[in-house]
Write a structure and sequence with these properties.
Layout (H helix, E strand, L loop, with lengths): L1 H20 L7 E4 L3 H11 L5 E4 L2 H5 L2 H11 L5 E3 L8 H13 L4 E6 L1 H13 L11 E2 L9 E5 L11 E5 L6 E5 L7 E4 L9 H20 L5 H23 L4 H21 L3 H13 L3 H16 L4 H11 L6 H18 L14 H12 L11 H9 L4
Parallel strand pairs: 1-9, 2-3, 2-4, 4-6, 5-8, 6-9
Antiparallel strand pairs: 7-8
Length: 399
């Protein structure tokens, strides 16, 4: 059974690799730096947008971050409306409420202001506006038939890279199981990486989201679908995370570190949206569904365990990453191990635990099953994982 699954998996990966060549390969126009969000607003005005809906969360309104965007739009002569009902891991109920407001306020574009949660919600709301208004019908691959409303992204965390990806994640309002809307039409038209919007991001969220970016880069780099272009983005992201994440966590006002982390997240997004991710994401998504573990935090805890599991098959790739960050000596095996140890040291420096206190022994088998179900035929992992192997790996994460 395992051998048949393994062979089928290889076949589907080969097919995915071929199909990915046929996908449109657009990168959003991107402004970078302390003036980036203002410059983006000026550009939005120039495109003739009349009244965009800003999709965000209540915390960002309270922090005054949304006001910076609405006033930059007003200065450029553009009226706007604000939907601030998005919460971490947005649900169908939340995107439905945002879509209702978009219709009520007669908006003609969508601006995401926030982390991955508002960015994903904005992508779905913009697609609902031109595709019949039913978010459930968009879940799956290539289900967005018509071009969404113009979409602009202003990330306020440096982690998900959603500003450059063709995926949006929306959770079932009751079970919290994540659904994936995957379509090149979801790609924003423009984005702004503005480090000044991130100075108030608390250290623990900076750490978790930064580890999300690292996970994207590493899973993309070791994926069987990677190529020279995605490898260049992924290695840039890995280098920048190791150099800048501890600085951004220690001093949130360090604008150079914040900017570098925004770019690292962006590069990692460019890489993984072309290669897909791997078992770290499959297991982390399931932790999110079971325990509400924040996405980046869950990824961080799982990452070293999956790298330990993959290090035979991905030895040379991990050794190359050791060279990128300048750790390890000796042969590829020692270097691969040194990279995994460097990930653990990074986690210790930024106060991310190695275990998940919410995890329960009785949940391990169903978590493993759900994660392997997500990964099967989707993720181009270097080493295929069986149910007992997945259970063993997850058991290592018990506190
Ligand atoms: P998030 O958007 O859920 O935000 C987490 C918290 O940080 C919120 O409370 C928010 O108010 C706060 N916050 C955000 N920016 C802030 C700032 N500048 N200052 C102070 N507080 C701030 O977190 P996230 O990790 O960015 O996004 C996670 C979501 O993204 C998950 O739902 C995940 O599934 C999704 N995701 C999507 C993609 C994609 O490509 N579409 C990739 C990875 C993850």
């Amino acid at each position: 059974m395992h051998a048949i699954q393994k062979a089928l998996h290889s076949l589907v990966i080969a097919l995915n690799r071929f199909l990915s060549i046929l996908l449109p390969d657009r990168i959003p126009v991107t402004f970078v730096g302390a003036e980036a969000s203002r410059e983006l607003c000026q550009s939005i005005a120039q495109t003739g947008v009349k009244k965009p809906l800003i999709v965000t969360d209540a915390g960002l309104v309270q922090l005054g971050i949304v006001a910076r965007v609405t006033s930059a739009l007003a200065d450029a002569g553009v009226e706007s409306a604000v939907y601030d009902g998005v919460e971490p891991d947005p649900t169908f109920d939340q995107v439905n409420a945002g879509f209702a407001q978009l219709e009520r306020d007669g908006c003609d574009a969508v601006i995401a202001v926030g982390g991955g949660s508002p960015m994903d919600a904005a992508k779905i709301i913009g697609a609902m506006a031109t595709n019949g208004g039913k978010a459930e019908k968009l879940v799956g691959t290539f289900k967005v038939r018509k071009a969404p409303l113009p979409l602009y992204a202003i990330p306020t965390t440096a982690g998900t890279g959603s500003e450059v990806t063709l995926v949006a994640v929306v959770s079932d309002s009751k079970t919290h199981i994540k659904g994936f809307v995957v379509d090149p039409k979801l790609l924003p038209d423009m984005a702004a990486l503005d480090p000044t919007l991130m100075v108030g991001l608390p250290s623990h969220i900076t750490a978790a989201t930064g580890m999300d970016a690292l996970t994207h880069a590493v899973e993309s780099f070791i994926a069987r679908t990677s190529n020279a272009r995605t490898e260049a983005w992924a290695t840039a992201a890995v280098r920048m995370v190791f150099q800048n994440l501890p600085k951004a966590c220690a001093d949130g006002t360090d604008l150079e570190a914040r900017k570098a982390m925004s770019l690292a997240s962006y590069y990692a997004g460019l890489a993984f949206t072309r290669t897909s991710v791997g078992y770290v994401h499959a297991i982390a998504h399931t932790f999110g569904a079971y325990y509400g573990t924040p996405h980046g935090h869950a990824n961080a805890i799982v990452l070293p365990h999956v790298l330990d599991f993959s290090k035979g098959a991905a030895r040379d790739r991990l050794a190359a990453l050791a060279d990128v960050i300048g750790v390890g000596g000796g042969g590829p095996e020692q270097k691969a191990q040194a990279f995994i140890e460097a990930v653990r040291e990074l986690m210790a420096r930024i106060d991310i635990p190695y275990t998940l206190s919410d995890l329960r022994e009785e949940d391990i088998a169903p978590i493993a099953k759900q994660a392997l179900g997500e990964a099967a035929f989707n993720y181009p992992v270097p080493r295929f994982m069986s149910q007992p192997e997945a259970e063993g790996l997850i058991r290592e994460i018990l506190a």
